[in-house]
Design brief:
The protein has 201 residues and is of the alpha+beta class. The protein folds into two domains: 95 residues, Ribosomal protein S4/S9, N-terminal domain (Ribosomal Protein S4 Delta 41, Chain A, domain 1, Orthogonal Bundle); 87 residues, Structural Genomics Hypothetical 15.5 Kd Protein In mrcA-pckA Intergenic Region, Chain A (Roll). It has nine helices and five strands, in the order αααααααβββαββα. Strands 2-1-3-5-4 form a five-stranded antiparallel β-sheet, covered by helices on one side. A hairpin with a 4-residue loop joins strand 4 and strand 5. Helix 5 packs across helix 9. The two termini are 30 Å apart.
């Protein structure tokens, strides 16, 4: 499936946050990308602010435009707070759950593990990164993949108690998706209400 493959530090510099790259790069060049990035002082319009928030959410979770639009429509048709439901659905993606469980160091690495069929859901191999994990399902590492260096390194010293909506079992190298997270438990700094306002225009 298609995904963003451009410069990661460029995305971080655009939003002024570490989303795809590393803190070191942003520390060296802490200004927007482009020829005039260091001199640009133009005020962003209200629409521009809302659009930037949507773009930030897309890059954070590794979702393309059409996918994101479909996820918003699904959230909008569900009873409840649309912005919160949207984030809950993004958090329920299989690649994100793998990342939250500490099986992979980044969402990109998690997506690769899923695509290469190293991850199981309820004991069955699932190779679709956008697979929607539902409460009660168990996400784990395929038996023959448990010794992979990228997985063992990621799990070493990872604090599994920081996400209350998942429960980790060290012996089986698997985690149970207990429930969809509350907004207060999602650590991302996304202002979801701005995304709702953007799609409402």
């Amino acid at each position: 499936m298609a995904r963003y493959t451009g410069p990661k530090s460029r995305i971080d510099r655009r939003f002024g946050e570490t989303i795809l790259g590393s803190e070191k790069v942003r520390a060296r060049r802490n200004f927007p990308p482009g020829q005039h990035g260091n001199n640009r002082r133009r005020k962003t319009s209200e629409y521009g602010v809302m659009l930037a928030e949507k773009q930030k959410a897309k890059y954070t979770y590794g979702v393309l435009e059409k996918q994101f639009s479909n996820m918003f429509k699904k959230a909008a048709s569900t009873s409840g707070i649309t912005g919160e439901i949207l984030l809950q659905n993004l958090e329920s993606r299989l690649d994100n759950v793998v990342f939250r469980l500490g099986i992979a160091p980044t969402r990109r690495a998690a997506r690769q593990l899923v695509n290469h069929k190293h991850i199981t859901v309820d004991g069955k191999v699932v190779g679709i990164a956008s697979y929607n994990v539902t409460p009660g399902q168990i996400v784990g590492v395929r038996e023959r993949s448990k010794s992979l260096e990228v997985i063992t390194d990621a799990l070493a010293g990872f604090n599994h108690s920081k996400y209350p909506w998942i429960e980790w079992d060290e012996n089986s190298k698997s985690g149970k998706f207990l429930h969809k997270p509350e907004r207060a438990d999602i650590p991302e700094t996304i202002k979801e209400q701005l995304i709702v306002e953007l799609y409402s225009k």
